[in-house]
Amino acid sequence: MTDTGFKTTFRIFKMDCPSEEHLIRMKLKGMPSVQAVVFDIPNRKLEVYHTGRPGDLLELLEDLRMGASVVSSEQMQPPADADADRIQTRILWQVLVINVTFFVVEMIAGLIASSMGLAADSLDMMADGIVYALALFAVGGAAARKKRIAGIAGYFQGVLGVLGFVEVVHRFLGRGEAPDFLTMIVVSVFALAANAICVILLQRSKSDVHMRASLIFTSMDVIANFGVIVAGVLVYLTRSNIPDLVVGSIVFILVLQGAYRILRLAKQKTA
């Protein structure tokens, strides 16, 4: 093993929102050879400043099943401002508060409006909140404690996702009345704005090249928000709950996929 510093650039095919970034960050925190990490989400690239073999890092990233591959590797020491934990911690707390707040707001609104789309989107916000909370533990936190909390959070999110999906199926079979379309649209617009703020906050720790509006539109959360808005409009036009149930089903599936990723992370061995 050599102490020579390297900068290895990876392409992460399925890294398209800040949640994937923090799952990767948590994974690499267990590697003593990792000195700093720099994310380029719009281009799905990750730069890792490290010692040792790039292949060891690639094996860890492949465990997350996000389509990781090595683009290049060269000798280079990390820049002085790369991956500043103090900045990361402050930003993570900010986005965590936003996500938890809108999880509560959307869940209450979903129950009042009888909208499965809003209820599902609230769980999607909670899923992001879980990832940000786990990332806070990764910033200077103990790996064993992080993995225990990840396991609890993953199972909790998975149970809620299954219960929500079962309720969607029940409503499909029973049809039921159309949800309150106006509540769906208004609350989703505010949630969309909240997600956009989170994206901007998360990019403040990076160089100006990453301050791109395209990042907002690649976020799965923002897509889910748009989906609920569109469903609200279709509910108004059709006077049916089918659009709401379709969007709810899709978002619940995304929530379950997120729970699966968190559980995989909790069960993986720390390097």
Q: Can you lay out the helices and strands and say which pair or pack?
A:
Elements lengths: L4 E8 L5 H11 L5 E7 L4 E7 L2 H10 L4 E8 L9 H29 L2 H23 L4 H32 L6 H23 L10 H5 L1 H19 L3 H26 L4
Antiparallel strand pairs: 1-3, 1-4, 2-3
Helix pairs in contact: 1-4, 3-4, 3-6, 4-5, 4-8, 4-9, 5-9, 6-8, 8-9
Quick summary:
This protein has 271 residues and is an alpha+beta fold. The protein has helices at residues 18-28, 54-63, 85-113, 116-138, 143-174, 181-203, 214-218, 220-238, 242-267, and strands at 5-12, 34-40, 45-51, 68-75. A hairpin with a 4-residue loop joins strand 2 and strand 3.
Describe it for me?
The protein is α+β, with helices and mostly antiparallel strands and 271 residues long. It folds into 2 domains: 71 residues, Alpha-Beta Plaits, CATH 3.30.70; 183 residues, no CATH class. The protein is built from 9 helices and 4 strands, in the order βαββαβααααααα. A hairpin with a 4-residue loop joins strand 2 and strand 3. The longest helix is centred in the middle third of the chain and has 32 residues. The radius of gyration is 20 Å and the shape is elongated. The relative contact order is 0.16.
First-residue to last-residue Cα separation: 15 Å
- What is the domain tally? 2
Helix content bin? 55-70%
Q: Give the biggest sheet.
A: 4 strands, antiparallel
What is the ordering of alpha helices and beta strands?
A: EHEEHEHHHHHHH
- Provide the residue-averaged pLDDT: 79
Oligomer: single chain
Number of helices, where a helix is a run of at least 4 consecutive DSSP H or I residues: 9
**How many E strands?**
4
Uncertain runs: 207-218
Radius of gyration computed on alpha carbons? 20 Å
Strand line-up across the major sheet: 2-3-1-4
Q: Structural class, from secondary structure content?
A: alpha+beta
